Amino acid sequence: MTTATTNRQWLLARRPSEAVKPSDFEYQEGPIPTLADGEILVRTIYFSYDASQRIWLTEDGGYMQPIQIGEAMRTVGIGQVVQSLNPEYPIDSLVEGFMAWQDYVVVRADGPMPLRILPVADYPLSWHLGVFGVAGLTAYFGVTDGLKVKPGDTVVISAASGATGSLAGSIARAMGAKIVIGIAGGADKCQWLEEKAGYDATIDYKNDNLTERLSTLCPEGVDAYFDNVGGDMLDTLLLHMAPQGRVLICGAMSSGYTDVQLQGPKNYMRICTHMLTVQGIHLFYYHDRLQEGIEELARLVKENKLYVEENLYEGFEKAPELLPTIFSGKAPGKLVLKVSDPS
Amino acid sequence: MTTATTNRQWLLARRPSEAVKPSDFEYQEGPIPTLADGEILVRTIYFSYDASQRIWLTEDGGYMQPIQIGEAMRTVGIGQVVQSLNPEYPIDSLVEGFMAWQDYVVVRADGPMPLRILPVADYPLSWHLGVFGVAGLTAYFGVTDGLKVKPGDTVVISAASGATGSLAGSIARAMGAKIVIGIAGGADKCQWLEEKAGYDATIDYKNDNLTERLSTLCPEGVDAYFDNVGGDMLDTLLLHMAPQGRVLICGAMSSGYTDVQLQGPKNYMRICTHMLTVQGIHLFYYHDRLQEGIEELARLVKENKLYVEENLYEGFEKAPELLPTIFSGKAPGKLVLKVSDPS
User: Fold this and answer.
1) Residue B269 and residue A250: Cβ atoms within 8 Å?
2) How does DSSP assign A238-290, residue by residue?
3) Which of A187, B225, B232, B251 has the highest CB neighbour count under 10 A?
4) Do B261 and A261 touch (CB under 8 A)?
5) What is the band of B54 on the pLDDT scale with cuts at 50, 70, 90?
6) How far is residue A137's CA from residue B126's CA, in Å, rounded to a whole number?
7) For the whole model, what pTM was predicted?
């Protein structure tokens, strides 16, 4: 039970047309919600920051219901059960799943990514949003199942310093790739990728000539490309894929995920002429394999094969101002906001 | 040995910028070529007509060397060996492979699609350009290996009345698809598809509303889409794919294969959100499985599961005027030109 009486909230005030801004949200205090049958009241502890949140802000919502004006901003989060009308989620359980920018959220256990009770483990709790969360699991299944990276492969990963990309490189390395190349913006990030995140080589797309660097680093073509960016970068990579290469479509950061029509890959007929396989990935379709993924990621962490970088902020009041930084990509790793402590 | 002294030829006179026209070629008579070590002189009998010929006419050439101004137009063809400096290809052998719009062509046995000696069989010789040639093999491997059509699948095939599409429908049916839907232009072709080519249902893209018809015919989405068209049609289909559906990229007829930049699929992020698999197909990568494909196609023909439609013309002089009809698609089935008789 909670003894608090106010519930801080960040509501969507206006639907952004292009880049999302902190002023698109407004602060409000409301009552602690009451529960209906089967529902669970969760006190939020950590908010995850993900590019997909921008998709939920579009009119269409993409693969989920769009967030409505006046509704609290949706987030993947970690929290603690404070009331429960679902016996599978006892009070005090630490849980991960879809939440909102509120102190207290009402959650149902069903849905495409059911609320997950977190095990007591030797790792920081917030890692369940990063390496053991959407980012890590997407990197893991993307590299192993989507791209099927195997020994000897030449692997390229874009948005390599992001939450997913920074883990995908090490996972590709662990799968025996011949060379793992990260694409990121700026010399600092590239240095970080090579020194910390296990990348063999990097391309600074802001300062290097992508075509020239790919020709130099991948003279026989790219076997596996993990695409988080789309746009012109995807088009350039399509021209550098090896015959029968594999492309993973994981994101389109270059689009900013606004309502503006995406730029389709103009060079997509390379898929035909080079007999490429282009595989999409979405964790909704891995719901029965998440535990397997988490165990494999934990093993890689234990064997020091994964470098986990967290970019941790603190304070409920910061929730809106951090969202745009997902696209400006100021710092490498997983962006997380801590809003309270576990009891 | 041949006793002929002239070699009729159709040479590329000018590189077409948009649609190819008969006037892009010029007629010439030359001497019978002489052979160098390892070469084979083939008298041509049948010319195949394929959309890929338009790609070879671009500056870039696509997946092969571009055809140069003054060079005889490349074609896949059937011919008979009249001189040979390669003991594996004895005189009088009937062969299929890359040839040119000439009476006599010099062929080497190597290359991405080696010259194939045709077996004596119960079928018309020209079928080795259609059902047992590029069209049939692309349809067979596209449906079975690329799309992995399985019992219960909802399958959609575009350019369904074309050489490849008209066979792909029956092959999908033979693989146990629940419903096989063909997209074609015009009521006549749609009627032909349903009455002759084994399609369960059709969409006339010139007269029907594609979105409405797909919603009606595929209420649970499309499991497998064999794309020969690209453009807006591919974009519409992407919105109708079932989760984890498969798309085969086989062609982009809507582009006309000119040098004009292709329109990329704007809805390609469906690949991510619906976790689609997009597979390219190109027969160059099946060179070690062609015999298997031909045997399976022969079995389907024998079991009356494949309807073979040939659209046969005769006369060397017609070579250029038939090429544009590949894109206007006047008649269903495989377009072939007979230019001589086997001896």
Assistant:
1) no
2) HTTEEEEEEEEE---GGGTT-SSPPPP-TTTTHHHHTT-EEEE--GGGGTTTH
3) B225
4) no
5) very high
6) 53
7) 0.94
**Non-local CB neighbours of B255 within 8 Å, separated by 6+ positions:** B230, B231, B262, B263
**Which SS3 state, helix, strand or coil, does residue A110 take?**
coil
Give the orientation angle of helix B210-217 with respect to helix B231-238, to 10 degrees. 40
Residue B272 with chain A: CB contacts under 8 Å: 249-252, 280-282
* ipTM score over 0.90, yes or no: yes
Contacts with B228 from chain A: Cβ below 8 Å? none
Residue range B188-197: mean pLDDT, rounded: 96
Which residues on chain A are in Cβ contact (under 8 Å) with B261? 266
Query: Average pLDDT of chain A?
Result: 94
- Check if A262 contacts B (Cβ < 8 Å): yes
Average pLDDT over residues A281-295: 94
Angle in degrees, 0-180, between the axes of helices B165-174 and B290-302, rounded to the nearest 10: 80
Cα distance between residue B12 and residue B6, in whole Å: 19
The distance of B194 to chain A (nearest Cα, Å) reads: 28
Q: Is the pLDDT reported for residue B256 higher than 80?
A: yes
- What confidence score (pLDDT) does residue A3 get? 66
Task: Give the pLDDT confidence score for residue A327 in this predicted structure.
Answer: 87
C-alpha A288: how far from chain center:
19
Has residue A239 got a pLDDT over 90? yes
| Tokens standing for residue A257 | 């995920």
DSSP state of B209: -
What's the pLDDT at A211? 98
Token representation of residue B24: 């892009």
Please answer yes or no on whether A282 and B270 come within 8 Å at the CB atom.
no
Count other C-beta atoms under 10 Å from residue B179's C-beta.
18
Query: Across chain B, where does the E strand assignment appear?
Result: 7-12, 25-30, 40-48, 74-84, 94-100, 104-107, 116-117, 154-158, 179-184, 201-204, 222-227, 241-249, 277-280, 310-314, 334-338
Residue B9 pLDDT grade (very low, low, confident, very high; cuts 50, 70, 90): very high
Q: How near does any CA of chain A get to the CA of B294, in Å? A: 20
Distance from CA of B176 to the nearest CA of A (A): 24
pLDDT digits (tens, 9 = 90+) for A208-235: 999 999 999 999 999 999 999 999 999 9
**Residue A1 in this model has a pLDDT that exceeds 60:** no
The domains of chain A, with CATH numbers, are: 7-130+308-338 (3.90.180.10), 134-282 (3.40.50.720)
Our CA-based measurement puts residue A246 at a distance from the nearest CA of chain B, in whole angstroms, of: 9
How does DSSP assign B216-264, residue by residue? Answer: HH-TT-EEEEEES--HHHHHHHHTTEEEEEEEEE---GGGTT-SSPPPP
Question: Residue A277: its chain B contacts at CB < 8 A?
Answer: 277-280
Residue with tokens 């030797």: A122
Q: Which residues of B touch A62 (CB under 8 A)?
A: 269, 273
Cα–Cα distance, B58 to B63 (Å, whole number): 11
